[in-house]
Design brief:
Chains A, B, C: It comes from Streptomyces tropicalis. Chains A, B, C: Pfam families: TOBE (PF03459). Chains A, B, C: Keywords: Molybdenum. Chains A, B, C: This is TOBE domain-containing protein. The structure is a homotrimer. By secondary structure, chain A is mostly beta strands. Chain A has one domain (about 5-139): RNA polymerase II/Efflux pump adaptor protein, barrel-sandwich hybrid domain (OB fold (Dihydrolipoamide Acetyltransferase, E2P)). The first copy, chain A, has 2 helices and 11 strands. In chain A, the strands form 2 sheets. Chain A has a 5-stranded antiparallel β-sheet with strand order 4-3-2-5-11. In chain A, strands 6-10-7-8-9 form a 5-stranded antiparallel β-sheet. The radius of gyration of chain A is 15 Å and the shape is elongated.
Chain lengths: ~140, ~140, ~140
């Protein structure tokens, strides 16, 4: 299976908090960062996830935001610091590649955002990903 | 590879509109419905997608909205009519299963939404999925 | 139309930037805030959107993030300042209601985020919504 999902970060489950409908899964990426995924409780059961499970965190490019400033007091759990390695701009949207510890992240953001933030190769940024946007794959 | 992504609908690519950064891919599901996915241009190239390609459309449950009324004048491209087959409610969130032609769709929506719409097993609904939330997998 | 989508904000289209696959639509909400929606080019054509069109911006609760700190240098286009009016917490997830100019916004975020940000009724926050998460309805 080959996925259109650009962002695939490997790591190990470090903890799970199950709710009735949803569950939060904490992952330590091989790059050293911590990531939280909010998935259905059913998915956790189906995948047999537990502390120690090897997983890949999957995130669609359209779900990745970028910040050039400090990120404090933000509900967004996942923050991967990195450096812009490339920008491809269309009329409305742009695709921005960010090198992070242990891999690369692609963000599809508006062209306006690229201009406002002055993003270009070499710009230091933090990739922000809401927990509800992180999917998980095993093996 | 096993995915936490609950919604996986198989079909065939019927057309692609490439932009610079993004591309829209139209798919005819085996259930007969048409689906549009907005993915990065790069993903289309990497997956070698073309009219006729067999794909699976992947949609995270948190990206599925439900409607109990008619849906007109809506930018959301993907609309799968079906019937609720089960509701699991937590304090804040709920997981709703919907039987659609050719498969089943899970929607993770707020508990408030379930109450407001009066959703229960047997309720007729339309599952709504924004194109930017659809990922694609080949083979 | 009865939708599970909690957040529906009315306004008027002020501008459209069409790309090949996607388009960005700018909206002035009746509450006075500006909003950007990134939707498919096809949706703009189908809905016949143009400057002056009356629309409702639809945003699923799971797509709304909250900030208690300053939001500068952020790619997320849509920022609605407001005040928390209620918090419903489950084990994994929480639903937070925020009063904003001209309406109310619901954010489904992790329970951890609520605790870390110390959110409670009366907390001043900014609701953050990525443009790709905004859908549009006419009429």
């Amino acid at each position: 299976m080959t996925l259109s999902i650009r962002n695939q970060l490997s790591g190990t489950v470090t903890g799970i908090t199950p709710g009735e409908a949803m569950a939060t899964v904490r992952i330590r990426l091989y790059g050293g960062q911590d990531l939280t995924a909010a998935v259905t409780r059913e998915a956790v059961d189906d995948l047999g996830l537990a502390a120690g499970s090897a997983v890949r965190a999957l995130v669609k490019s359209t779900e990745v935001a970028l910040s050039t400033g400090p990120v404090e007091g933000l509900s967004i759990r996942n923050r991967l610091p990195g450096t812009v390695t490339g920008v491809t701009a269309g009329e409305a949207m742009a695709s921005v590649k960010v090198g992070v510890d242990g891999g690369e992240v692609t963000a599809a953001i508006t062209r306006d955002a690229v201009a406002d933030l002055g993003l270009e190769t070499g710009s230091p940024v933090v990739a922000l990903i809401k927990s509800t946007e992180v999917s998980l794959a095993t093996a």
